[in-house]
Structures are given as C-alpha cells and as structure tokens.
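Consider the subject:
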Amino acid sequence: MSTYRPFHGLPPLAGLASFEIAQQPGLSVEECVRRLKRFHYAFKRLHEIFIARLTAEPVYELKMTFSLHAHYCAEHVAALRQRVGEMREPPLGLDVVPDTALAVFFDEILAAPTTEELLLGIYAHAVPVLGAALEKHRLATNPLADAPTVRLIKFALVEIEEMDEYGSRAVDAFGPEIGRRKAEIEAWLEVLDQALAAAGGLDGTSVKSGETIDRKYSEKPFTYDKVPKRDARFPDPYNMGVNAEAFLYDPLQPPEPKVLMMFYKRLREIDVPEMMASIITETKDKPWGYYRDMTRQLWDEARHAMMGEVGFVSLGVDWTKVMVNFTWSLGLNTQLTAKERHGVLYFIEQGLMPKTGKRFEWETAQAAQNALSALFQDFDWADEVLHARVGRDWYVSQFENPKEAVEWGDRAWSKVLIGWKQWRDEGLTQHRNWWPDVYREWCRAQGVEPDAKVQAFSESYETKRADLKVLSASA
C-alpha cells in the first residue's frame, strides 16, 4: 500500500474525495450518459406538466409553485443537455423517449383529472423517485472522473429536496379530499408504480417487470385547457371596474395610496403566467433555450404577483377584497395564436420601459417613502431587462426588424375583444368599483383619515373606463 501523503495533510484531490474512494471504478461514460438521458427526460416531462397544468389550476398558491418548479426543471434540463453534449458527439438522442413505460408514467400524471391526483403524481411519486435516482448516481459514479456530473447532481438535489418538502405539505393540505376518494386514487397510484416497475425504475437500473401497463387517465391524449381558473378567493374574476393606471398617473393624487394600487398591479400579474403557459405549451419544436428563457420570464411574473401579495400583507389590507380579474389571460388565450400572444406580450413590455412605465412606479414608491414598494418596483423594473432580451431572442428574431415586430404585436392586441358589456349583461360581473372600500381599509390600517381628493377620484371611476385594453394589460 502506498505511503503517499498530501503536503502538510491537506485534503487530497481538491477535496472531491479520498484516494480510497477515487480508486473505485464507478460508472462508465456510456452508463453515465444512459442514466443522464433518463434524468433529462424526467425533468423535461415534469416541466411540461407544471406548465401545461398551471393555467387551469384554480389554487393561487399552486399556480405560483408550478411556476417556480417549472423554472427549476427547465434549468436542470439545460444543464443535463450540456453535460451529455460534453460526453458524447452528436446526435445526442436527447429527444428520444428512453422507455415507453416511463412515458406512460408521466403521461398519466399529466392527465390526472384533479388537483389531488396531480399533486400525488408529481410530489408523492415523480419527484421522490427522481431524487432517489440522482442520489444513487452520485454515489455510484467516480467523484473525480465524473466530477462535472456530480456537481450538476448536487445542485439538482438541492432543488429536488425543496420541491419534495413543498409537495409533502401540499399533499397534506389536500388530505381530506384525498381521503374521500382513497380507493379510486390508490388504484391509479398502482398504475404509476406498475409503469415505473416496467421501466426498470426511473434510472433503468432495476430489472424490468415485463408487465404491460393499462393506461387509465392517459388513455385519451391530454388536452391543454387554456381557460384560466381561479379559486374562491377570486370571487369576481371578470371585474374590470377599476382602472389602476388612471389613478396612478393622475398628478393630483398623493403618492401614498398609489403604493396600494401598485401592489394591486403586481398581484394582478397572476394572469401573465396563465397566459405565458399557453405560449410555452402550444409552441413546439423550439431549441431548449426558448423554453428555458420563457419559463424564467413566466416565473418572474409569478414573483411579481407574490410581491403584490406581500405588499398587501405589509399594509394590513386583505387582498381577497381586491377584484383580481383574469380577463387579459382569458382574452389572449382564447382569441389569439401562441405567436400572437407572444407579440402582445412584447408590445406591452415595450410600453413599460419609458418614463411613464416602470421608472414612474419606482419613483412613485420612493416619493411615498415606502421602502418595500420601492424595493419591489426596483426589481420589477430590473426584470424587464431580461424580458426584453428574451423578447428579442425569441420573438423579434422572427421579423425583419424590431419595428415590424412591435407593430405586429400591436395588431394582434387590437384583435382581442374584451367583453366588458357582454360579461355584465350575462351576469358574470357588475364591474363593481371595489377601490373606495379597499382604500378606506388601508386608511384604517395606517391610522390616517381618507384623503378627499382620493375619495372623490375613487368614487367617480365610472367616467374613467375609456381604455379597457390598458385596464387589463398587466404584464
């Protein structure tokens, strides 16, 4: 046995491993690549599921979580694609389904008919088995020879653990509903277990069962539901009775209550992930960079909505008393193509960057001396730098020049019919002016008297509904 010792007892091999462990043969490049392709497939399918189920998921917290977890998955797909490319010459075969039974496993989760089954499929099955497979690979591969993969897996496991912990709490929250349908749900979960067994486990290292899997929910191909859904805390989602921009840009109104209106605008951005999910789901055969970038922007918009939520909490105001409408995502999703929706998104974003856009909102928060609002507006504004780049890379690049791209998006936006009068006539909403009540609640929480100018403006909203397109443009 060698008596070699590192200098002054320093950890050997850059701290990656001991000599004893580094001498273990580990996995071959071929075997590493085979497993990595299956991990890639799993993250890619999970990304698909999170995005495809986001729009029609009514529970607000789950919309936000799906946005984040889709972002995580998109990043890990990109990292795995790069690593496989480092280890093998093209064609890499990353778009090949590694096992038909594994495809059934994810198809069943995608097609789950209820939120309860969807959560169980994702967080009680797919995420834990993916985490276990990644950890198994980390322990089996040589930590020196395959150090880049080990590093990649370490980062993935951090976020897999976070997803797993959130998922466990989410499943517990739906415990009563799951319990009422226990027998039916358990029968479906057996289908998932059978599919994994037939695939030889997620990583394909177990003996395949050889069993033929009878599809249940995925027997009929999944159909994306592009109509946004909201839970009971959004009682009037067609309500377009308050023009936030009219109040924000009125120079006669004081800056302090404008902070409340800006928090409303941020919370209202819940509809952007609902719309962007439709673009991502319905746009096929793009380079993975497209899906990664678009998912990052989707997650940013979800962050903005949660900034609004935090803002209301900070002011002591119940945000469920604010009528957060879904008319923008509803109109775009049901009336435009995916490319037209992207055009509208880009067109609106171009209008957010001048002095009357993000800068104005940040300056308003500063004038109000509200540190939290100023911080949120600062980062909201900063995010637009990335979003502008995403728009240039994946939307503007389809046109001869940026001017043509903006004009095309403007024309697409003009095609959207906002059924303000129709929805009122159908009894879907009365477009109630909720702002005076919320403003008074804010005054009580802040211990101040209502401002007469604000009150007068608030109670005359009926005369300020001229531009319904601006009203609902919440990107």
Q: What stands out?
A: Residues 187 and 216 are 10 Å apart (CA to CA). The two ends are 66 Å apart (CA to CA).
